[in-house]
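task queued by scheduler; priority normal; single chain, no ligands, no partner chains; default sampling; output format set to C-alpha cells
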Amino acid sequence: MMYKEDWELAQSRTLAWWEGEIVDRPCLQVTAPRAGREEARDEALRRPAGIPVERWWTDIDLIVERTARRIESTFFGGEAFPLLNPNLGPDLFAAYLGAPLRFLNTDTNWVEHPLDDYERFGPLVIDEANRWWRLQLDLLARAQEAGRGRWITGIPDTHAGGDALSGLRGNARLCTDLYDQPEAVHAALRQLDSALTAAYERYFALVETDTYGSSSGWLPSWTNGRSNAVQCDFIALISPAQMQEFILPGIVHEARLLDRAIFHLDGPNALAHLDTLLATPEIHAIQWVPGAGRDLMIRWVPLLRRIQAGGKAIHISCTPAEVVPLLEALRPQGLMIATGVPTEGEARSLLSAVSKVV
C-alpha cells in the first residue's frame, strides 16, 4: 500500500488480534503527522472558509480530496493503516428510510423523527431513489476508485436496527413502545434486519472486499473478509431483559452478515449489557469507550480484564502515556491499542517501547 509500506505485516498482526493471539509484539495503532508534512495535515482537517457545512458532508470530490491530503501527510505506525471513512453521519440509516437529515457542524448531524404511526408509515425498505442512499453508494464507489493501492475504503457508520428505529421514532417514544406496542416494534426491527442485509450486500461489493478485505470506516479494524462495527447506542436506555428481547436478535443478525464483528460499547450506561455481549459468540471483539469526559483508560483495567476473560478481543483508545502501563496490566493477546502522538519520531519511539513489552 502506497502510504503503508509494512501493510502485509500489519495485516498478519491484525488477523492474529481478531483470533485472540499475537505474532511478535502487542498490537498498536499509532498515528502522527508525517515528518515535514505537519502543516498539510492540519490544513486537511480544517473546513475551508466559505465551504457550507452541508457541502462539507455531501460533496464527494471534496471528501475524497481532503482524505487523500490527510492520508498523504499522516504516518501510520504499527497496525494503523490509511482508511477513508465514508461518513455521512450516525443517523444515515434512518435517513435512508425517510427521516429528514439535518447538518449541525463538521462533526455530526441528526434526524427528525417522522414515524408517528407504525401502520401508516409504510414498509421499512430502502428506496433506491432516496437521496442519501444514492449519495452513500456514490461516495463508496468514488472513494474505492480513487483509493485502490492508497487506502482502505471503510464501511459506513451503520446504526441499523434499534438505533435506526430510534432515529425514526425518537428515543422517548421508542422506550414507551417497548411496553405499549411490542409487536409493532418487533415487526419494525425485523424489517430493518432485511434492509440492513440489502445495504451490506451493496457496501461490501463496492469496496471490493474479496480483494482488499474491509474495515469499519470509523473504527480501524481490518480483516480479510467482511467486517464492521456493530453498535446500538439505544441499549443505554433499556434493561438487559428488553435488550435481549428486542435488540439482541438484530445484533446477532448483523454480526452473522460479517466474517468478523466488533461491538462498540459506549459509556457506563451500556455496561448492564456486557454479560449478554460476552455470551454472544457472533461478536468477536469489543471496543470499550468510557464516554465523553470520562476517566483515563487505565482506570478501566478491571473491566478490560473482564472482557478478556470473556474471550473477546479488545480495541481501546488511550493517551500515549497509558500505552505501556495498559500492556503491562492486560494480556497482550487479543489487545489492540490506538493512540496518536504529535510527531513521527514519537510514534516510532512508542513502537520501539511496545516491542519490548511481552
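post-processing summary
- The longest strand covers residues 27-33.
- The chain is about 45% helix and 15% strand.
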